[in-house]
Each structure stands twice: as structure tokens, then as C-alpha cells.
């Protein structure tokens, strides 16, 4: 793997010291220019009998996967979906989600991945933003989705019973225990939807560079949700990059995925990349860190992508704390959520139980199709999130001067990658605020995260400029956008200014809760002000975004450059935990 080391200039983006972890072939390998569907097909058409998906013990071969994608593409065509259509997918990890994703890609249509818990107002905003005429959802979410779509431009809703792809016995039990919702006149149940395309020829739209493959949702530097447009090149670049990472990915290994499909980390790595490597992808629709050890013990996967709490409970649960882990290769986790103490503890657990590999960390953001940096068997230092994928470049930039930092100096992490988004949907100004094009026409994504790089090309994260925190709501990951909370709080008469910081939730290794720092204007007693703040937050914010605590201050801490010191506020927020 090791390439010949070169003398260093002192600038990581020039030296690219991480290339020593890659072969010459990896550094020179051309990126695939094709549909995401085409890369999936080319990677597996010669292995029709290999297992592609496992869903509650029901197995689908790659031949069956491609047949299901074809049926779904014909059904979408019959429904009126065409090249350029945007279809909202409000789904969980189900086979129908995978079929829909690739079927829409074949047609040149764009799946818009929306969290089923999205409130009615925000869902209507997504529908209006992209002029969506079609929604695919699942029965338990259907009543709220259907209500939110009333009066919008949505022509058709397709609803999937969770039992649709279950093994026969499980399907019978589920259907006995659960009633189907009453479908409105514009709604088709999945089985009827598929039947409607039986006599229709499926369209095919050839690859076009720069065409949107999927829309995912995140928050930007303002803290408000944005629609991120990712291309075929974006998701294929991640899949292609992992072919050369020093992790032994092999055909027909098992990859467990309980990350919901609206989290691009799961969609990109645990679905597309894993399938393009010919693996068996275990789709599990319930994201629950506490329940994960039991599911892990049942399926015994070779790989999984998770959050830090999954690892914490895996190492502590009676079913798995002494389990033989010699089959496990990559226990993957977002490196920015894994503190050094837990990393050390999990590595000791893996080693004790026979796993030959350390926990695999990574780093990225939705705007980079999730993963831009990863550890591997040969590049996995404690505290580091790893090295860039071979086609990526990193530079560390001084936030005040904008100049590139040398090794060991902390600055903003900026990444140039073929996986970078096309932009935010219909938001050119917001796109320009995060993507900078330099004098050599190289596009750089400003991550808003602080970090430094060592002379081996390993990236270490130090904190956030970009203030977004991950929490848990209804056993699913959710994002806290401080900017949204601050806008609500600042609308209260007694507030002069406010800033929100996150702190770790008690008992969690990765989830946060918001703490609001308030500068009162003195117009009312603090007790009265707190009641007003609680009232408006209950009215305007989802439960997981309501402040866990209000702290009153006379002034905010500031950096030497005069900006609010969010890192100091995070330290203050954590002080009483």
C-alpha cells in the first residue's frame, strides 16, 4: 500500500501525505461516470445468485434486486414520473426504499429523502420547493404525510405496508395485529402501484454529468434546514473510493444497516457502497442503540455503520460483552462523535473478544455525500478520524486570515472532493457561502469544523464552527439547528440576544441537548421570562429542539477576533453535567 514518501512543503493540500496509504492505482484510477444504478448493475450483473438484501430473514438475490428495480421503474413510469421529476421518499430501511431509489435513478427522476417525522409545515415547504407531485411513504406515517400534502401540488401518494416484504409468517402476524390506514383517493397501496406498471415499458435516462441523483436535507451555517443536491458522481465517488481503502471489503460479506435512508451516511456507505462491493446488506428499519446488541448477536455482520451509542451498548450488554467477535471487520462510526475514552474502551472490548481490527472512524457531511475521510487498517491513530479518500484533498485554513495552515496547526477543515454536492436546491447564495472556487478552479467545501492534520496525513478534529448537533427523537437520529432555536427565542420581548450551544445528554456517548444562553433586557423578572420562553418553544419547536436549560448572562464570551466563542459556550454548557 505505501507509496514512496516525498519531502514535505509544509502544506497538506500540496504534499498530500495521505497518499502513502494508497496504491499507485488508487491515486490514478478514473472515477466512474455513470448512473448510480449502472455502477450497481455493472458490479453485480455477473453474480445473479449472490444475496443482495436481507430483511427480517427474507433474502433477495441480486437477480431479484434488479427485477424489483425494473418493476418499480415501470410502475413509476405508469404513474407519470419522468426525467427530472422529483419524488419525495418518506421511508425507513425497507427493500421498497432501495428499489425506489434506483428505479427513479434509471428514469432520471430525483428522490427527495425526507424524514417521516418532519412536521406538516416543513413537509409542505419541501413539496413546494421542488414542485413535487409524487410521494412514497409507509403506512404508519401515511396519515400525517397525507394530511400535510393536502392542498399542495401532490398528485399521487404511494404507501407501503411494513409487511410487504416480510417473510410469509411474519407478514401474516403483522397484518393481523395492524390495520391498514384509510387511503385517500389519490393514494395507491404498494402492491397496486406495482401492478399498474405491469404493461408499461420502463424508461431509461442516460447519465448526464452534473444531474441531480438525490436530494438530502441538512442544516447550513445559518442553522436552518437546506436541500442538498447530490449527483451520481457524488455517491459513486464514495463507492469507488472505498474500493482502495485498506479495509478488507469482500463480496458476500454482511453489512448491517439501521441508519434511516434520509441520513446520507447510511444511504451512501451502508447501502450503495456495500451493494457495489457485492455485499449482503441487512436492512433493519428500527434505529435503537439500546436494542442494537440483540440484533447484532442475531445477524453477526462483518460490517456496520453506527453512532457511538451503538458501540457503547454493544460493549456493555450481557448478550454481547463476552461474544466472540472474530467475524467482525469494521465497526464504523462518525469520528466526531467518538470521544477518546470511549474509543479506547471499545478498542479494548474488540481486542478482548477476538476482533482483529480497531473501531473504524470516518468524517464528512451531507454536502460531501457523508464520507470524505476514513480510517483503515493501516491508518487508524487514536483520536484521528483518518485520512482522505484517495481522490480527495484537504487543506486546513486559518478562519481569520483565510491562509492555509501548516501541519499541527488548527483551522477550518476544507475539502475538495468529487463527492461534493452540486449545491443547495434553489439557494445559490447559500451554496456560495459554503463552496469556494479557487484560482485554479478547484471547488472547496468549507465544513465549518475545526481540526488539524499531522505529517502522516491523519486528520484530527478539534470542535465546531458550524453549529449542528445530533440528538435522538423517537429512536431515530435527529439534528438540532441552533439558529432555528435562536430565532424563536429572540422573538420574545424580554430577550436582548441569545445563543444556543449543545451538551452531551446524560448517559449518551453521542447525542446532544440544547442549552440556551440568554442576554435579558431587564424588562421582566427571569422567572416570568423563562415561562414565556418555555411557552413559545413548545409552540414553535419540535420537542428535541426545546432547550434543556436556560442560562442568563450579561455578555457572551468572544474569540480574539471578536466573534462569539461557541467552543467556550459548549464548555460552559457541559459544566454542570
Instruction: Tell me the distance between the termini.
Output: 45 Å
Number of helices, counting only DSSP H or I runs of 4 residues or more? 18
Number of strands: 27
- Tell me the fraction of residues in β-strands, as a range: 15-25%
Classification by helices and strands: alpha/beta
Rg measurement, Å: 24 Å
Spatial shape:
globular
**Which regions are unreliable across 5 or more consecutive residues at pLDDT < 50?**
1-5, 219-223
Helix content: 25-40%
Rounded mean pLDDT score: 91
Which sheet architecture does the biggest sheet show? 14 strands, mixed
Textual characterization of the structure:
With 577 residues, the protein is an alpha/beta fold. It is 31% helix and 24% strand. The protein has 18 helices and 27 strands. The strands form 5 sheets. Strands 1, 2, 10, 11, 12, 13, 14, 15, 16, 17, 18, 20, 21 and 22 form a 14-stranded mixed β-sheet that branches.
